Amino acid sequence: MTAVETPTRSLKFWQGINQALVEEMERDERVVLVGEDVGRPGGPYGVTRGLRDRFGDLRVRDTPISEAVLVGLGVGGAAVGLRPVVEIMFFDFAMIAMDQIVNQAAKYRYFSGASMPLTIRTMCGAGGPNGAQHSQNFEAWYCTVPGLKVVMPSNAADAKGLLKSAIRDDDPVLFIETLGLLPARREVPQEDDFLLPLGVADTRRAGSDVTVVAIGRLVDRALAAAERLEQEDGISVEVIDPRTLAPLDAETILASVRRTGRLVVAQEATSPFSFASEVFALAVESCLSELKAPPVRVASPFVNVPTPVPLAEARAPGVDDVVAAVRTTMREA
Amino acid sequence: MAELKTPVAPATGSARTTSRGRYRLMRLSRRFEETAHEQFGDGQVPGPLHLSIGQEAVAVGGCAALRKTDAVLSTHRGHHHCLAKGAAPDRLMAELLGRTTGYSRGRGGSMHVAIPALGLLGTNGIVGGGIPIATGAAYGMQAQGRDDVTVCFFGEGATGAGVFGEALNVAALWRLPLIFVCENNQYVELTPQEIHVAGEIWRRGESYGIPGVRVDGNDVNAVADAVGDAVARARGGGGPTLVEAVTYRWFGHYAGDRAAYRDDDEVNAWRANDPLVRAGAALDPAERAALDAEVEKEISAALAFAQQSAVTGPEAIALDHYAAA
User: Fold this and answer.
1) Is there a domain that residue B323 lies in?
2) Is the residue at B185 inside a domain?
3) Would you say residue A194 lies in a domain?
4) Is B128 helix (H, G, I), strand (E, B) or coil?
5) Given A189, A220, A251, which residue is the final one in a domain?
6) Residues β-bridged to residue A10
7) In chain B, at which end, N or C, are there fewer CB atoms within 10 A of the end residue's CB?
8) Who has greater pLDDT, B4 or B39?
9) Are the beta carbons of B224 and B283 closer than 8 angstroms?
10) Per-residue confidence band for B10, with pLDDT thresholds at 50, 70 and 90
11) CB contact under 8 A, A147 and B135
12) pLDDT digit string, tens, across residues A113-160
């Protein structure tokens, strides 16, 4: 191997986001950032710190608590030549702006034939102490909307590379960050054109017995489970992180399922009508005869998120749940 | 009727179009919609149709001072706004008739027309849906250092939507080049405005420090002057204005709504106050007749264009959802 070494730095997830924003705003003056507390305070968790000082008030704008108009700033701004990044502080608040996301941004190209280069960044509060109105995983809702793309990175490097691609994309992208992942470190490539393509899954761990498709916080948990299953049971687990939920890289997922014949899907959302349900449907439609065992979903129980972190973590699926699910699929003939 | 909340600079934009030009555009809008209404009656419009007949002065006056690079946000009742901002009657008619040559390939119909090249950022199927987008367009112009402006048309019904208050606040805070034009046609869908609207709309901006003005929405020159003043101020960095133009919807909420909830006397009184007749009174009858004849030709050609265009088929359904890879 004589590959040129790409310089990397160990960064936290939030730093990956921050770096992507800085690089894209340096590169293209049409890129702006608007949202609640993004400017002077640098975001409630510091994700956007330093941006206002660097790019000024017109390009990094603090908005009132007006989510519908906030997304409208992005839709209208994009329609007249900007490439806006709008930040909805918590994913739960996106529901307040649903008309602008679903009825307006996602349909603009269909009505006009024109681009809608809008990135809507938001943060799912999973892993934090904020309770039932700040911690929900409704990513699957948005995946039902034609015209919208949905990205959900699980680590700092993917967050950076995917956000840069989202900003350069000519369609509206909902970009879902996760509170519980913000401090997590990973080596992040430092060249300016570190772009990860939307719609391409990442096989985080190769394996031959079971395919685990995991998203958000469950990716790291699935990797830990795979390690344990290898050591304790000698089971070889393949872990796939789709990274982009819409459009979904079904090809990579199904190729793996065909090889292993066993499928587990792990997510923090509740099960009914969820991302996991969609992956099951794809597997059943495409390779039912190649499945050696019924697929298993690892998900949160169908109850609301409690506020105290120990309770919230008790509700969230963990490494043990993934291990148990994989063992279940292996027990089936 | 005009009451000025805050004194504003004398009109500058109103000279941009002549009485002749305004009358012609209003006549074009009237005949366009009458023709579309007939087509609807003949079963040729595969979608709902919300007529703005009787309200033409608001659109024509409201767009009189605008350039192509200025933006307009329209509503579910928006043919007159589209035409006033420069939409081609033939392609607009084709859209209503579900033809491939329509602005949205005949898939959208009248509530889903957007023509970004003309600055028309959309009619809208959602009442109030254009208000946040208008705020964003005005912000975009400001952020790019342009002296363009955005005019946001909406009905009195939309003043009940939360986004109206949100937008007034942001527009005032940021001194956005945004003109809110409330086209008060006095009926919110099937009920009169008394059921929907408390207080006075033109004063809604008062506590935000946004100047407000109410004008006779059936007087194209009054609308053009009020909006023209607001446009001039916005271009100069003076921030937003709220204009309430009081007018009347001659027909029901949608084509087919017989509007039995209204008094004939009321309707007849407003029909006697026809904005098109008032605009035409400024012209010599012979000149007016010549313009009418021109418009008839244009409308006939638009209808023929639409009728001769192919009906949009299922092969168009999947187009224009994502950028080409």
Assistant:
1) no
2) yes
3) no
4) coil
5) A189
6) A187
7) C
8) B39
9) no
10) very low
11) no
12) 999 999 999 999 999 999 999 999 999 999 999 999 999 999 999 999
